[in-house]
Design goal:
The chain is an alpha/beta fold and 252 residues long. The protein has a single domain, classed as Rossmann fold. Helices cover 33% and strands 29% of the residues. The chain is built from 8 helices and 10 strands. The chain has a 6-stranded mixed beta sheet with strand order 6-7-8-3-9-10, with helices on both faces. β1 and β2 form a beta hairpin. The longest helix has 16 residues. The chain is globular, with a radius of gyration of 19 Å.
Length: 252
């Protein structure tokens, strides 16, 4: 399987001021390494502050690494950003990624214009995506009338408008009710069936076990376990039991 994401000894530090003269170095990501194959659903698991979002920001060219190497589609994430950005997209949880006073169709038309998509193909592409996320019957309704789950499906539609090869998802089902979360998971499975590669962070261990081909568990910026879900679980009855033992404390 092609290596579509390669991470080698990746490190990210922040400098935090302590008073007027003193400074403190905060290590958010501490020398992690992993690979993602084309067409995989790959999970980053860990408690708040484990380094998951910082890792995604580096992979999506939003943040430069302090040290190490991260490549997406064979290109360096810092230095060859322009060769990566039109082939990926980033979807995050919550309700802030769409314009609520536009309709679903108008949102997608706006973002397709930002990507300079061929106007003759826009309508076909928008209709296709709206059907995938089960919003075709609400295409001309204002987003402000949508439920949280519908907003999140519209965010996924926005993230697909440029037909990315890799989709990064940061807590995509956060705050959704069970029905909305199930619909989102079904969409992620459909994306895999279409040959897309998905890298996601999640706190929901059942969701990770259901979706992910491979995963890593992070703690304090480091990877403490990696592999397929059955390897992570090892001799434990549930993935949750293994997770708690690895990171300590309670599931966040």
């Amino acid at each position: 399987m092609d290596k579509i994401i390669e991470v080698r000894n990746l490190r990210r530090e922040y400098i935090r001021k302590k008073g007027i003269r003193n400074k403190e170095t905060i290590v958010a990501v501490d020398g992690i390494s992993f690979e993602v194959g084309r067409g995989e659903i790959f999970g980053l698991l860990g408690q708040n502050g484990a380094g998951k979002t910082t890792t995604i920001k580096m992979l999506t060219t939003l943040l430069a690494p302090t040290a190490g190497e991260c490549k997406v589609l064979g290109f360096d994430c810092f230095g060859e950003e322009e060769k990566i950005r039109n082939k990926i997209n980033f979807i995050f949880g919550g309700e802030t990624g769409v314009y609520r006073r536009l309709t679903a169709r108008e949102n997608l038309r706006y973002f397709s214009n930002l990507y300079m998509l061929n106007s003759s193909k826009q309508k076909e592409r928008i209709d296709e995506i709206l059907e995938l996320v089960d919003l075709k019957n609400r295409a001309d309704d204002l987003a402000e009338t949508f439920s949280k789950g519908m907003i999140q499906r519209l965010q996924i539609a926005r993230g697909l408008i440029n037909d990315p090869e890799i989709i990064f998802m940061d807590e995509p089902t956060v705050g959704l009710d069970p029905v909305g979360a199930r619909m989102l998971r079904n969409i992620i499975i459909k994306l895999k069936e279409q040959g897309k590669t998905v890298l996601l962070t999640t706190h929901y261990l059942q969701e990770a076990e259901e979706l992910c081909d491979k995963m890593v568990i992070m703690k304090d910026g480091r990877i403490v376990k990696s592999g397929v879900p059955s390897e992570i679980k090892g001799g434990y009855v549930t993935l949750e039991d293994a997770y708690i033992d690895l990171v300590g404390g309670q599931v966040s």
